[in-house]
Amino acid sequence: MSTDIHHYKFDEAVPGDELEQTLLLSVLAVESLHGETRVRLDGRFCLRAKDRECTIDAGTPVGRDLNRIFAGFISREFGPASFRVRRIDEFPQTKEKTA
């Protein structure tokens, strides 16, 4: 089964607060492309900074752009070996930093 939900897991050397800042910068970049309202309506992501995990639903054009920008930023900032990404079937249930 094909899915567009991407789950990122980061090494312990990656600071959770910097990870959060990188995700927020990625969201701002996507807002520049699609507008704030469209990102609020079509963007779905979840960050668990203390666990160094991030999930992005890339099932919409907004989500695809967010996923691409975030992947580029984290690879450049933390190095391509600092994280692993895999596709998952379901979006995690959480109340922390979900949009």
Short characterization:
This protein has 99 residues and is of the alpha+beta class.
Describe the structure.
- The protein has helices at 16-34, 36-42, 61-78, and strands at 5-10, 44-48, 53-57, 83-88.
- The longest helix has 19 residues, at 16-34.
- It has 99 residues and is α+β, with helices and mostly antiparallel strands.
- The mean pLDDT is 92.
- It has a four-stranded antiparallel sheet with strand order 2-3-1-4.
- The protein is globular, with a radius of gyration of 12 Å.
- It has one domain.
- A hairpin with a 4-residue loop joins strand 2 and strand 3 (53-57).
Q: Topology of this protein?
A:
Layout: E1 5-10, H1 16-34, H2 36-42, E2 44-48, E3 53-57, H3 61-78, E4 83-88
Antiparallel strand pairs: 1-3, 1-4, 2-3
Helix pairs in contact: 1-2, 1-3
Please name the defining characteristics of this protein.
single chain, 99 residues, alpha+beta, 4-stranded antiparallel β-sheet
